[in-house]
Amino acid sequence: MPTTASAASAFADVTASDGALRRFLHGLPGVDAVGLEARAASLGTRSIKTTSKAYAIDLAISMIDLTTLEGADTPGKVRALAAKAVRPDPTDRSTPTTAAVCVYPDMVATAKAALAGSGVKVASVATAFPAGRAALPVKLADTADAIAAGADEIDMVIDRGAFLAGHYLQVFEQIAAIKAECGDRARLKVIFETGELSTYDNIRRASWLGMMAGADFIKTSTGKVAVNATPANTLLMLEAVRDFRAQTGVQIGVKPAGGIRNTKEAIKFLVLVNETVGEDWLDNRWFRFGASSLLNDLLMQRQKLATGRYSGPDYVTVD
């Protein structure tokens, strides 16, 4: 499969100047907001039962980036979160592990040690998360520190101010520079903060901008603003990665983050994936949930399917 680097080179002419990049991004088809929201709502009505529901729950668990991004994070909290990622339900060893644990750069080494040998990845936010307002050398240093400490994945935030001001080439060059810093050592997730981009057209433009610059994943949100992942904005990003692969042969992952709190919502997102991009993306290499509270509800629903009883929140560990 072609790489993100080869995809970036394919768009060399488009990204040669601010004007060329602006013409390309503003030349993308406009988004039919009513149609987009109606399709997302329609797909959300699909009913998933019994064995299909059990499969969907385990798949969703395996796609979670179990996250703690608080100023009060401690090594003890990170180690506890890592233990939960490796064994989400201590009473049932058949429960899948989560995809990753996501922490601030200064907690990467702690998470890496706690997850050693488990197969669970360490993801780290970087680039002046969540605002993204810092000079490029600072963002590069932030990224380098996280990778040096053992991060397998970097979740970077774009400068939304620069994007909304139309400085697309500046945003492109920052993403490309962070991707170069990651190299082959870490996969790069690019966060758009869709709730601040104002329009669906901007979300489509940001998606193509991120993919052309070398993102391995495009991600909706930081989880730190009022509007985070929604079915509609995730559907739009899924359409973007589908169209990008059709044009370049390069597959890009999608990560909705923030606001997905229960099993019913998670399954709706999995239906969006299946119906929009297909089975190729139904794997944690290509689709993730950024979540801190979703896992507990998935575990409770999993226990209900196994026992016929709804156990309640006292029967799962507190994050």
Description:
The structure is a single chain. The chain has 319 residues and is of the alpha/beta class. 48% of the residues lie in helices and 10% in strands. The chain contains 13 helices and eight strands. The chain has helices at 4-10, 18-26, 33-43, 50-62, 75-86, 108-115, 136-148, 160-164, 168-182, 200-213, 231-248, 263-276, 294-307; strands at 64-67, 100-103, 121-126, 153-157, 187-191, 217-219, 253-255, 289-291. The protein has an eight-stranded parallel beta sheet with strand order 7-6-5-4-3-2-1-8. Strand 6 (217-219), helix 11 and strand 7 (253-255) form a beta-alpha-beta unit. Helix 4 packs across helix 12, helix 9 packs across helix 10 and helix 11 (231-248) runs parallel beside helix 12. The longest helix has 18 residues, at 231-248. The protein is globular, with a radius of gyration of 19 Å. It starts with a helix and ends in a 12-residue tail after the last helix.
List the helices and strands and how they pair.
Elements: H1 4-10, H2 18-26, H3 33-43, H4 50-62, E1 64-67, H5 75-86, E2 100-103, H6 108-115, E3 121-126, H7 136-148, E4 153-157, H8 160-164, H9 168-182, E5 187-191, H10 200-213, E6 217-219, H11 231-248, E7 253-255, H12 263-276, E8 289-291, H13 294-307
Parallel strand pairs: 1-2, 1-8, 2-3, 3-4, 4-5, 5-6, 6-7
Helix pairs in contact: 3-11, 4-12, 4-13, 5-6, 7-9, 9-10, 10-11, 11-12
